[in-house]
Amino acid sequence: MRENGISTLTMADMESLKLYIDYSMKQLSLMLILVCCTLIIKAKTPPILPKYKHKVDSIYVNKQLKIMKLYAKKKWVKSYSISIGSSPKGHKQYQGDNRTPEGKYYITDRNPNSSYYLNLHISYPNNTDRKRAKQIGKSPGGDIKIHGYSDQYGNTKPMNVKFAYTWGCIAVNNNDMKEIYQLVKTGAVILIKP
Questions:
Q1: Same domain, 128 and 66
Q2: N or C: which terminus of the chain has fewer CB atoms within 10 Å of its end residue's CB?
Q3: Measured between alpha carbons, how far is 12 from 23 in angstroms, rounded to an integer?
Q4: Which residues, including other chains, have CB under 8 Å from residue 60's CB and lie 6 or more apart?
Q5: What is the pTM for the complete model shown?
Q6: Which of 124, 123, 89 is nearest to 194 (CA)?
Q7: Which domain holds residue 11?
Q8: pLDDT in tens, 35-64
């Protein structure tokens, strides 16, 4: 409605405006509650490193889901996205097949000076792997690791951390590898599933 060239609000307009303001305030309140809850949870969630440093004694890898889970005394610690061999299906048969092994192995060594940022050595090949490769007249290969990332020039910059495949190793981004390297103890069991 207009009076003397000035727009005035009708009762219906006022009611609509009130409903809109009420709705907006409720949305804003919900957003503030969510932000506060997130901050409280983060503040109360203790970092895992001090509690589990060198205590992770088992690792579970699911090749199909491309996920690696760490456990300490059967208690889940943390999960990570992974990259695996460029021929993801099946167990590693021989050197150069670009497959990630499947089965039960162990973390036998750690390398802080790895070309791939940091690495944890996996005990592949075992006796069964050696026999299988010998039967087909090939070397089983080795040097299967959990490692970080390095590009073709050896750079390990944080921007160069996501890639699709390896030559058979299990790879994670460098920030994750730094954490994994400190959490996993030498001798930990690693179970790699298809």
A1: yes
A2: N
A3: 16
A4: 68, 69, 71, 190, 191, 193
A5: 0.70
A6: 89
A7: 2-44
A8: 655 555 554 445 677 788 889 999 999 999
